[in-house]
């Protein structure tokens, strides 16, 4: 026991879910406890995937067996020519018999007699457990949790191109005992090369990089098996949300526009990028869940192969026209379908959908995109995942967070892209904002749908056109007069028009969602301060990282470093996060741009 304690004295044991890992006090291997939300959500979706995959397989086998049964009833005495009848029959139901050629005739006769006696004979093949690939494993915590907590999984492969990370991963695999050793294997490899050399081999591929996943997407869509699940995280929201639009275009092939819906737009840009990479290999994606949480976006998509289905991709993509004066936005589809002589043809989208100037306020439009404008969730998957999570509450460390997100997602209008903010449109016309219930009631009473958005507590998604939205605000201002505004302001231009719709603000039954009626928490505060991204692995922690770590954590981290950033056992000084002379000589702590245009916190 003493030897074990001596071996573990340099490590700190971190426990999450059913997995435990050993972490050094240094920042050599990246670990962020904040990502427990990400890992819990991934486990929840992965469990749903395993169950859905089994259901789909059983349905397929039943369908094929029924088809085979009907064929057997139609033909009383099968005509056999060598192995042909046996091979075609068994290929149809996915069964391969390894028989010697000289025994084929006897086998066929036996099968014919069996079919005559029992026409309902079923032949099935056992479904293999899904294989999971974690492309950027670091400490291996995610892979260990998958292996230990998700029933029915096969092998879990953990990759990293950092030697220290793989050593830590292998150490953690051993530390978690026989169950982890039998399922998880770690490899030192470049994830891009590994995925390219293992096409369609993995049922699940997980990408959770530090920053942008763009360089991994091309190989990832090739590594996923047909019908498999690709899980992808992007943490470079400054790029995706419009702060660095030109960088976003270079990485994702879309130009973002700034708006309150920026986080949902980030999701849709990422989905459009994945679809673009998949289409190059005659593949396409079907999103099952797309969420914005904490400081990142995370998408879960299934990947299929079909040369004909990818023709529909332009129907799922749109450009965004965002008014520079008011909050109105409009979508322009890239493509359309035309029916001619009972045949379906694909054609370019007809546009533009907006005039040169906004019809509401008279200002110009900014153009962004293309973005994914099809649904970003599968409501059946969302509800199945939410039900499963509630039944296994004790197995999710971040149960409250993921249930709140899934609950809000389940109530979204899934076929309405983007959203607007009630406070923003009230600010445009310079009036006090109506309550969310009153505004939602007015929209519902006008004959339209409206829901909240999981991306923003103040966000509202609606199928009501913008002239209806502004008519409601005109009626509101009519009953709640405002001060006179400058003539050239967007609000003045909007209010100068008479409303064509008489808004009814009487409370509608559907103005509150089921979760709101039951007072279910939908938007939770951060569980602790400094809940966000951490310092990239390998970087020397200095006082400039206080905003990421906090004074206490920074003091503890710096106490374990020497001048070169290496781990030391010397006690920390009493000054805490005070800047040392050495730190004063370091470059400015202003955020610098790296060569590829991505923001970095250190030079």
Describe the structure.
- InterPro entries: SAM-dependent_MTases_sf, Trm1, tRNA_met_Trm1_C.
- One of its GO terms (biological process) is tRNA processing.
- There is one protein chain.
- With 603 residues, the protein is of the alpha+beta class.
- The chain has a domain of 105 residues: Phenylalanyl-tRNA Synthetase, Chain B, domain 1, CATH 3.30.56.70.
- 37% of the residues lie in helices and 19% in strands.
- The chain has 22 helices and 19 strands.
- Strands 5-4-3-6-7-9-8 form a seven-stranded mixed β-sheet, sandwiched between helices.
- Strand 8 and strand 9 form a beta hairpin.
- Helix 9 crosses helix 12.
- The C terminus is likely disordered.
Total strand count, please?
19
Q: Fill in the CATH topology of the domain at 414-518.
A: Phenylalanyl-tRNA Synthetase, Chain B, domain 1
CATH architecture of the domain at 414-518: 2-Layer Sandwich
Alpha carbon gap, first and last residue: 45 Å
CATH top level of the domain at 414-518 is Alpha Beta
Strand content: 15-25%
Largest sheet: 7 strands, mixed
Main sheet: which strands, in order across? 5-4-3-6-7-9-8
In one word, what is the shape? globular
Q: Strand pairing plus helix content: what structural class? A: alpha+beta
Tell me the CATH superfamily of the domain at 414-518: N2,N2-dimethylguanosine tRNA methyltransferase, C-terminal domain
Counted by DSSP, the helix tally is: 22
Helix content: 25-40%
Radius of gyration: 29 Å
The assembly state of the depicted protein chains is single chain
Any low-confidence stretches, pLDDT <50, length ≥5? 76-123, 562-603
**Would you tell me the overall average pLDDT?**
82
Biased composition (Basic and acidic residues): 110-122, 587-596
Function: Dimethylates a single guanine residue at position 26 of most tRNAs using S-adenosyl-L-methionine as donor of the methyl groups.
Catalytic activity: guanosine(26) in tRNA + 2 S-adenosyl-L-methionine = N(2)-dimethylguanosine(26) in tRNA + 2 S-adenosyl-L-homocysteine + 2 H(+)
Family: Belongs to the class I-like SAM-binding methyltransferase superfamily. Trm1 family.
């Amino acid at each position: 026991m003493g030897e074990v304690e001596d071996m573990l004295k340099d490590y700190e044991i971190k426990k999450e879910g059913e997995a435990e890992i050993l972490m050094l006090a240094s920042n050599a291997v990246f670990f962020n406890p904040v990502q427990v939300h990400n890992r819990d959500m991934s486990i929840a979706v992965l469990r749903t995937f395993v169950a859905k995959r089994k259901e789909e397989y059983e349905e397929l086998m039943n369908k094929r067996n029924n088809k085979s049964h009907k064929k057997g009833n139609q033909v009383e005495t099968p005509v056999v020519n060598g192995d042909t009848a046996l091979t075609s029959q068994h290929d149809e139901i996915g069964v391969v018999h390894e028989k010697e050629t000289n025994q084929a005739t006897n086998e066929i006769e036996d099968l014919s007699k069996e079919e005559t006696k029992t026409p309902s004979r079923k032949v099935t093949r056992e479904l293999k457990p899904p294989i999971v690939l974690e492309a950027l494993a670091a400490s291996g915590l995610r892979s260990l949790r998958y292996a230990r907590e998700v029933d029915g999984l096969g092998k879990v492969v953990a990759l990293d191109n950092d030697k220290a990370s793989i050593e830590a991963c292998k150490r953690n695999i051993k530390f978690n005992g026989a169950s982890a050793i039998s399922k998880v294997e770690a490899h030192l490899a470049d994830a891009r090369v590994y995925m390219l050399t293992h096409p369609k081999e993995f049922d699940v591929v997980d990408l959770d990089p530090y920053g942008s996943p763009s360089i991994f997407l091309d190989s990832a869509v090739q590594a996923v098996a047909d019908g498999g699940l690709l899980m992808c995280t992007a943490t470079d929201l400054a790029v995706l949300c419009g702060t660095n639009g030109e960088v976003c275009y270079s990485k994702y092939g879309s130009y973002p526009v700034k708006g309150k819906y920026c986080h949902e737009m980030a999701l849709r840009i990422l989905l459009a990028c994945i679809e673009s990479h998949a289409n190059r290999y005659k593949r396409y994606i079907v999103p099952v869940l797309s969420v914005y949480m904490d400081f990142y976006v995370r998408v879960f998509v299934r990947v299929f192969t079909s040369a004909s289905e990818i023709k529909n991709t332009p129907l799922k993509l749109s450009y965004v026209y965002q008014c520079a004066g008011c909050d109105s936005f409009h979508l322009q589809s890239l493509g359309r379908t035309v029916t001619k002589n009972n045949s379906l043809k694909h054609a370019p989208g007809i546009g533009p959908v907006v005039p040169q100037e906004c019809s509401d306020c008279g200002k110009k439009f900014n153009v962004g995109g293309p973005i994914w404008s099809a649904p970003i969730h599968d409501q059946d998957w969302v509800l199945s995942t939410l039900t499963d999570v509630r039944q296994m509450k004790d197995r999710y460390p971040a149960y409250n967070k993921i249930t709140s997100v899934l609950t809000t997602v389940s109530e979204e209008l899934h076929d309405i892209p983007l959203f607007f903010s009630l406070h923003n449109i009230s600010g445009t016309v310079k009036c006090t904002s109506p309550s969310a219930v009153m505004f939602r009631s007015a929209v519902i009473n006008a004959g339209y749908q409206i829901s909240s958005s999981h991306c923003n507590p103040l966000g509202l998604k609606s199928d009501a056109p913008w002239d209806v939205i502004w008519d409601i605000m005109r009626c509101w201002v009519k009953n709640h007069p405002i001060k006179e505004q400058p003539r050239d302001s967007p609000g003045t231009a909007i209010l100068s028009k008479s409303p064509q719709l008489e808004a009814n603000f009487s409370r509608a039954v559907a103005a509150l969602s089921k979760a709101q009626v039951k007072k279910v928490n939908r938007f939770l505060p951060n569980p602790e301060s400094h809940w966000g991204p951490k310092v990239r692995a390998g970087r020397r922690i200095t006082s400039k990282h206080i905003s990421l770590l906090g004074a206490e954590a920074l003091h503890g981290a710096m106490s374990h470093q020497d001048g070169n950033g290496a781990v030391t056992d010397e006690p920390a000084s009493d000054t805490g996060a005070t800047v040392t002379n050495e730190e004063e000589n370091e470059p400015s702590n202003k955020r610098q741009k790296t060569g590829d245009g991505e923001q970095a916190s250190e030079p």
